[in-house]
Write a structure and sequence with these properties.
This protein is an alpha/beta fold. The chain is built from 15 helices and 7 strands. A 5-stranded mixed sheet has the order 4-3-2-5-6, with helices on both faces.
Length: 386
């Protein structure tokens, strides 16, 4: 029995001893601090002389050689530490112990950047580029107009809230216009005033109601003046003229252009303020020749002509105040381009279902407004009688 137990003891000595987890932790921790645990001498009498033990030690040293650290510096980056803990967590007994050895918080080890977050960041950057491109041409577009413009013009559907979030994230803001007014209306004259025909008026199509007004444009030597006529149905500028003088000839030129372009039938209402340019005999005579009915706002009540005022605000905010005109020739080059190529053709209007005036008129001609859920009938509110 004793001999058998002796032989059994001899057999036990040649079998490899199971590694002590504490020794593993000490060795790996030393490696993290810059020392190779394989360089430590094994204590004599602990089975270090067996071939299998040496093979296991060499295997562990080979594993250590693959770790992402060097003797001089140890692990520096969090990504390297996470990789180290992942490969050696079993040797330390737990993830928390391995993290403690390399100085890494367990939450940092478990954190994994989501692929969706990376893709979202890139997508937001792409949308930002598109927004900046649109705002370079239309700097006063907010997130609502951007949403409609991208969907209509680019075929890109982006939620309004996402556009707003991206604009806030990257500090993209629509410009806000704060202007001032110079008086362009002189109601003190002896030509008389036309009746106001707009209260309660139903506008169901083009060439039913036109609105006219005058504004100023600053140049180095003073001001030049713009007279414009809009079709109330589509907000399209149908006639315009620019001059250094604010007189009846300026308004007559805009009227003649509008009549030549649109060829309106009898019964068209031409609405304006009480300015002498629109009340004079020459202007009223031209309206009568074409069967156009004159209409004027009540004194001190400018709301009927708010549509023309809104156009002037847009023109100045998105073109005039962004440019320094030196001469009237500069104005004659820039303003007509904005009116025809930008305002009429491209610029979308919330009141038109986010279509441009030209697009809105084409939809009306094809009788597609109701199919798109747009309301082609406009009923103007009542106001004080003239």
């Amino acid at each position: 029995m004793s001999a058998d137990r002796g032989r059994g003891s001899s057999d036990d000595r040649v079998l490899p001893r199971k590694p002590d987890p504490a020794d593993c932790r000490r060795g790996l921790a030393s490696a993290v601090r810059g020392r190779d645990p394989g360089s430590q001498d094994h204590r004599p009498g602990k089975g270090a002389g067996t071939g299998e033990r040496e093979a296991q030690g060499q295997g562990r040293r080979a594993d250590h050689d693959d770790r992402p650290f060097k003797k001089s510096g140890g692990l520096q980056k969090a990504a390297d530490k996470r990789r180290f803990v992942h490969h050696h967590r079993e040797e330390f007994g737990s993830v928390s112990e391995a993290c403690k050895a390399v100085g890494l918080a367990p939450s940092s080890y478990y954190y994994k950047p989501k692929r969706d977050e990376v893709a979202q960041t890139q997508a937001d950057a792409d949308v930002r580029g598109i927004i900046e491109e649109v705002q370079a041409e239309f700097p006063f577009y907010g997130y609502r107009r951007l949403h409609e413009w991208l969907e209509r013009k680019r075929g890109i559907t982006i939620n309004k809230k996402r556009i707003l979030r991206i604009m806030n994230k990257f500090g993209l803001k629509a410009l806000i216009w704060r202007g001032w007014q110079i008086k362009t209306t002189d109601p003190d004259h002896n030509f008389g005033y036309a009746k106001n025909w707009l209260p309660g008026r139903r506008v169901t199509g083009m060439n039913q109601v036109w609105v006219a007004d005058i504004t100023y444009i600053r140049i180095l030597s003073g001001f030049v003046y713009l007279a414009a006529i809009l079709d109330l149905f589509s907000r399209r500028v149908v006639g315009w003229a620019i001059s250094a003088k604010i007189d009846a000839e300026l308004c007559l030129e805009a009227l003649n252009i509008a009549i030549e372009k649109r060829r309106p039938g009898p019964g068209l209402i031409h609405h304006s303020d009480r300015g002498v340019q629109y009340a004079c005999d020459a202007y009223k005579g031209r309206l009568a020749e074409c069967g156009v009915v004159p209409s004027m706002s009540a004194k001190g009540y400018c709301y009927d002509n708010a549509f023309a005022e809104t156009f002037f605000k847009t023109l100045k905010a998105e073109e005039v105040y962004l440019t320094e005109y030196e001469t009237i020739e500069d104005v004659l080059k820039a303003v007509p381009r904005f009116i025809e190529a930008v305002y009429n053709e491209k610029r979308i209007h919330s009141s038109l279902g986010y279509f441009s005036p030209e697009e809105f008129e084409k939809l009306a001609e094809r009788k597609q407004l109701q199919k798109l859920g747009l309301q082609p009938v406009m009923i103007l509110p009542g106001n004080p009688s003239s």
